[in-house]
Automatic annotation (TrEMBL):
Reported cofactor(s): Mn(2+); Mg(2+)
Chain positions covered by the region annotation Disordered: 300-322
Coiled coil start-end: none
Name of the protein described by the UniProt record: Protein phosphatase
Keyword Hydrolase included in the entry's annotation: yes
Length: 322
C-alpha cells in the first residue's frame, strides 16, 4: 500500500477460496481504507474534530476494518508515521507499527563502524502464529454462515484490540523500512535481507535515495525469496528460516525511506494520486510522509557487494518514502 503517511502489506489467506470467496478482495479493501484514514488523520495542519483525529494504530486499523464489506481473511502489517509525539518540547517523529498475523517489518539505520557506514536492523516486528504453526497465522476475517454461523465483526474487532502487536520506534531521516508477507520472511534470513540492502542502497547515492534503488531492492528481495524453492547447482535446496527449501508463496514487499517533508511538497499530498504518480516527496512542513516502492513476482539482477562510503543518520523531521 502506497500512501504518504502510512505503509502497509496485507496477505489474503488463500484457503478462503474453497468457499468461493476471492481472497484478494478483503486485504485490498482494508488497505484502501487504511490509506484513506492516514491521509485524513495524519497529514499535518489539518484541523479535525477530536473524534476524527489520529488516536493510534489500533483505532486506525479498527476503523478501517469496520469500513470494509468484503468477506475474506487476511494478515496485515502497518507502519504509521506519527508526528504528534513531543519530547522536551520538540516534535519527535515516530513510526508506530501494528501487525496481525505473519507479515513482518524491519527498520534499518546506517551505523558508522570502523570506517564503514552499513545498514543495521534497529527494529524487527516479528510474525504472530498460533502455537507457532506456519499455516496458522493470526488473521483478520469476515465470514458468512457457510464457514461460521456464529461469526460477527465483533470477533475481528477484538482480535485487533487485544491480539495485535503494537510497537513504536523513533524515525530518523535516512532510516529504511522493509515490510513483507510471510513469503519473504519464511524464506530469507534477516542477514540475507541486510546484505541485499547494503549491496543496493549505497551511501554514495545521496539522500534521498533514488526511487529506482528502492524498487531495485524490492525486486531483489522477491527474487531471492523465490530462489529458495529452487535447487542449487549442487542439487540441494537452500536453507531457510522455515526449513530446507523454504516454501512457494506469493510474495509482497514494501521498501521505504525516511526523508524530509518540505513545504515545497505540501500540495502533492492528495489521496487521489495514482501509484505511478507517487514519485515525488509528499511534504508538509517539518513532518514525515511515506514514499517508496512495492513489488510482487519480479526478476532482478543483483549487484555485487560494495565498499560503502561514510555518512551519518540525520535527526528527526523527515518523511518515509516507499
Amino acid at each position: 500500500m502506497v500512501s504518504p503517511m502510512i505503509l502497509g502489506v496485507a496477505d489474503g489467506v488463500s484457503q478462503i477460496e474453497q468457499y468461493g470467496i476471492d481472497a484478494s478482495l478483503l486485504p485490498r479493501e482494508l488497505l484502501r481504507h487504511c490509506a484513506s484514514l492516514g491521509m485524513r488523520q495524519l497529514i499535518p495542519d489539518k484541523k479535525l474534530a477530536q473524534k476524527d483525529s489520529y488516536q493510534g494504530p489500533i483505532p486506525l486499523l479498527r476503523q478501517a476494518f469496520k469500513a470494509t464489506g468484503n468477506l475474506g481473511s487476511t494478515t496485515v502489517v502497518l507502519a504509521v508515521l506519527d508526528n504528534s509525539t513531543m519530547i522536551h518540547g520538540k516534535r519527535h517523529p515516530m513510526i508506530a507499527a501494528i501487525t496481525v498475523g505473519d507479515c513482518e517489518m524491519l527498520v534499518l539505520r546506517r551505523v558508522e563502524t570502523e570506517g564503514s557506514n552499513l545498514f543495521e536492523i534497529i527494529f524487527h516486528m516479528e510474525m504472530q502464529r498460533i502455537e507457532g504453526h506456519a499455516q496458522s497465522p493470526l488473521q483478520l476475517a469476515r465470514v458468512d454462515g457457510r464457514i461460521d454461523p456464529n461469526f460477527t465483526d465483533a470477533i475481528t474487532v477484538e482480535v485487533i484490540e487485544r491480539g495485535s502487536a503494537v510497537h513504536c520506534v523513533s524515525a530518523y531521516e535516512g532510516d529504511v523500512v522493509i515490510m513483507g508477507s510471510d513469503g519473504v520472511f519464511d524464506n530469507l534470513f534477516l542477514d540475507e535481507i541486510i546484505h541485499l540492502a547494503n549491496s543496493i542502497l549505497q551511501p554514495g547515492m545521496g539522500s534521498p535515495l533514488p526511487q529506482e534503488a528502492l524498487a531495485h531492492l524490492c525486486r531483489a528481495i522477491v527474487l531471492a525469496s523465490h530462489s529458495k524453492s529452487q535447487r542449487q547447482a549442487n542439487g540441494r535446496l537452500p536453507e531457510c528460516p522455515i526449513g530446507i527449501g523454504g516454501k512457494v508463496d506469493d510474495t509482497s514487499v514494501v521498501v521505504a525511506e525516511v526523508i524530509e517533508w518540505t513545504e515545497e511538497d505540501k500540495g502533492r499530498s492528495g489521496p487521489q494520486r495514482r501509484r505511478k504518480k507517487q514519485q515525488g516527496l509528499w511534504a508538509c512542513g517539518d513532518f514525515e510522509c511515506c514514499r517508496g516502492a512495492s513489488e510482487e513476482e519480479v526478476d532482478v539482477n543483483l549487484p555485487e557487494p560494495h565498499s560503502p562510503l561514510n555518512t551519518t543518520p540525520q535527526p528527526p523531521n523527515s518523511n518515509v518514502r516507499r
